[in-house]
Amino acid sequence: MSIESLAVLVLLGSFFIMILLRFPIAYAVGLSTVFCLLVQGSSLTTFCAKMVDGIFSFSLMAVPFFITMGVLMGTGGISEKLIALANSLVGWMRGGMAMVNIVASYFFGGISGSASADTASLGSILIPMMVDQGYDADFSTAVTITSSCEGLLVPPSHNMVIYATTAGGISVGSLFLAGYLPGALLALSLMVGSYIISVKRHYPKGEPFHLGNFFKQLGKSFWALAAVLIVVFGVVGGVFTPTESAAIAVIYSLIVSVFVYKGLNWKGVWKALGSCVDTLSIVLILIATSAAFGYCLTTLHVPDLAAEFITGVSSNPIVLALLLNLILLVLGCIMDMAPIILIATPILLPVAVSIGIDPIQFGIMIVLNCGIGLLTPPVGAVLFIGSAVAKTPMEKVVKATLPFYLCMLITLLLITFIPEISMWLPNLFA
Q1: Residues 20-58: pLDDT tens digits?
Q2: Residue extents of the structural domains in the chain
């Protein structure tokens, strides 16, 4: 066996063994890279240099700001405002509170960009509220965790910034625009599934729709929703860079949370910033170690080998597109979202482009696949959070989530095979 083949075996073998042993993902990525470099006889200074190169990016400066914005807005008293707005819009339907949950997640996702934050924040309010109104706890939790994935698609999403950087400088503004319709399609499919179940189980309706109440709640929620307008239209319109818009959004979020909604005092701000540091330390270490891991993959020609293997399975673009989704879904079951984006993008993107999938469309596919992975054992972080918030056994939640998995998979297939869903808005504003 050649040194190159042995290095590939050590890199990938040690990585997956550590994943199965439940090592923290950053350690698994970093240690497998070190082992690979040692096998090749390379200096470990290469590892350090590639880690620094991985985070030495102007575009990545937007990630800490977007995470900080999401934490400030998520703890700043806006959850109740967005729930009231969603209730005024769709609460009148059969299973109205399930619909409210899904629509509120679409609004909240545009602020937090995090499925975990969505589940923890909205779930702690909506799950007890739904149970009190006669909804089953497992159904309420299933609706909450699946709808939280809308926030991964609806901008501003720091995971899209990570993908844009990893994929080689794709326009962040175009990715932001590309997420709106897929996010809305996901919400619609989940609402259809919720409605069917609600009719079968005779879940209650809410109060009738009143246009005046809708505008009243829209006015109360305006300051929260305006943060999204600042970021998205600022970037798309060329007024700000993604980093500048994120920094402005942080200042805006601080003002709105402390002085407008008054959901945070200064002690709460410091606590929120401490939470940001915890999250950022994990994300940035992952980005740094994944850059070194990616360097090893590239030098060992793993992306080329993977592309040859995948395209060797079939020459049919439909089969290859399904295979790409399957690979991402399997990875989502054993890895968290950021490392999948960082590691899988350089390997799978060339294959996607070769069968006619635009890099922007593929970014949406990766994000949704990873979102589904957040809901699946054994590493489904959002699944665990939802179960903990609802105090419901994970097995019951998984069973109740099965119909919603189907809704999400249908959405994924539509996004995969109808490019216009992702590309219409970016092409419109191109």
Answers
A1: 887 887 888 889 999 999 999 888 888 899 888 877 766
A2: 3-428
